[in-house]
Design goal:
2 copies of one chain form a homodimer.
Chain A: E1 5-10, H1 18-32, E2 36-41, H2 68-77, H3 83-94, E3 97-103, H4 111-120, E4 142-148, H5 153-156, H6 165-178, E5 183-184, E6 188-190, H7 198-213, H8 225-229
Parallel strand pairs in A: 1-2, 1-3, 3-4, 4-5, 4-6
Amino acid sequence: MAGKRVLIVYAHQEPKSMNGSLKDAAVTELSRQGCQVTVSDLYAMNFEPRATKNDIVGALSNPKSFNYAVETYEAYKKQSLSSDVVEEQKKLQEADLVIFQFPLYWYSVPAILKGWIDRVLCQGFAYEIPKYFKNGFFQNKSALLSFTTAGTAEMYFKKEYAGDIRYILWPLQHGVLHFCGFKVLTPQINYAPERASEDKRKEMVTSWSRRLETIWDEKPIDCSLSWYFE
Amino acid sequence: MAGKRVLIVYAHQEPKSMNGSLKDAAVTELSRQGCQVTVSDLYAMNFEPRATKNDIVGALSNPKSFNYAVETYEAYKKQSLSSDVVEEQKKLQEADLVIFQFPLYWYSVPAILKGWIDRVLCQGFAYEIPKYFKNGFFQNKSALLSFTTAGTAEMYFKKEYAGDIRYILWPLQHGVLHFCGFKVLTPQINYAPERASEDKRKEMVTSWSRRLETIWDEKPIDCSLSWYFE
């Protein structure tokens, strides 16, 4: 939709990968609509995933015993977070929609993207006590997980293997996105593109583009326990 | 137990933290028993969390389109993984028990520890198709998550907030540890040490030491869906 701002947080090493194609398709379709699209290409940026003292510029509140959560909260308030974190916070602050594009690694996001979550979503910026969940800061924003898997859909729904793909989504969608108040859109899951035919792979990209044509009309999912576990 | 080998994968920035104290207590108690204890102190090592080409020494199988899983699998077989990954794999290979000691970040492990999981547990070393779950490689090893939380126990069991702490454990215990065949021991969870009194904090450390006195007699948890979701 013209004028809307979109941030794509993208975590794949290879531009020619399925994740790269899905990211490119999103940029193309959303730009065509007149959206302002920003991509944080984490590997290309060599984004720092480690949560350390380096995230605070200048003096620490308590240099004798380093507490990352406390120090980054203070640094946020004093505007003394490191510039790479501030840059990502600005992009997120301006976005109406945030798309996370990644391959599933060990039932979760790759470490480089976990680092983005750990470092960018600090207290004060992304939440406050008790400003979270239904009182969360980002209620005017939508977010969506778009990811690929190594295993097939059958594997992710086989009781003895992965139980249900939604179990895996709980920490990310509920614990991160819903916690910060985001409206969570239905995840875009592409199962096992590496085992798929070229035609099937093209179809994955096309159906993502097609979905994005009407993404602004979508209703968020109901972020209840029953969505995940019933 | 004398002669047993233990690997502690430790992810906290501050030696004086509760996580640091719990790690120290484990080293002390297990050494007292005559175990050989190795600590991977991830922040002190400045452990690399990013999964990149740098993990493969020498030529790639397919330099035109980088696939991390495929390349690291090939590199494992050709013994051409980067030395920091090989070093961790050796420590893990020799261990009878692996303890992961960390603060819960966003319903999961900190990015630096996620990077250890992403990079060390490559195909060929940690699993093979179909060598996983009950046919997994690490059936002669036990593993245990020992972590602290920011929120109180009440918060983690409040339906509208976190549902149940076990939901959070699913990706880590089932998707990582059980997948690789580990016998999973009951997690050691210390809720909200930062909100606790000094006495209560000491008690957390003491009760961990005490548990470790008989850790070799413990039966693993039943890694079924019902342990997590019923």
